[in-house]
Amino acid sequence: MAHTGTGYFDRKGNFYKSPHDATVSDLAALLGKIGDGESLAPGIANMLLERRSEIEQLFAEHDRMLGEEAALKAARIEDAAGKVTPLHLRPSH
Fold first, then answer.
1. Is 16 in contact with 7 (CB distance < 8 Å)?
2. DSSP secondary-structure letter at 21?
3. Residues 6+ apart with CB under 8 A from 34
4. What pTM does this model have?
């Protein structure tokens, strides 16, 4: 007898029974082929999805450090602005 069901599709249009499997497929496609022989990308993609919260935390910390680094560089440039004497170059002949 016929029945209905729910399915999920990855970005390529491949059908999967769970959102987890469809997302792993998309992540694996983003990673591309990794390793010799059969690609390691599906296993890595699965691990990325399982460790999502830790990975998002790392990226948040990374973004915060980049912001701090940019602020420090801007402060150094601003501080050095009054201490730099421009060079007057002689014309070349």
1. yes
2. H
3. 40, 41, 44
4. 0.65
Can you point out the beta strands (E) in the chain? Answer: 8-9, 15-16
Interatomic CA distance for residues 93 and 87, integer angstroms: 18
Q: What is the pLDDT of residues 20-63, one digit of tens each?
A: 999 999 999 999 998 888 899 999 999 999 999 999 999 999 99
Query: CA 60 to CA 71: how far, in whole Å?
Result: 17
Is the Cα dihedral 10, 15, 16, 21 positive or negative?
A: negative
3-state secondary structure 28-52: HHHHCCCCCCCCCHHHHHHHHHHCH
The span from the CA of 25 to the CA of 45, in Å, is 8
User: Treating both helix axes as pointing N-terminal to C-terminal, what angle do 19-31 and 41-50 enclose, rounded to 10 degrees?
Assistant: 120
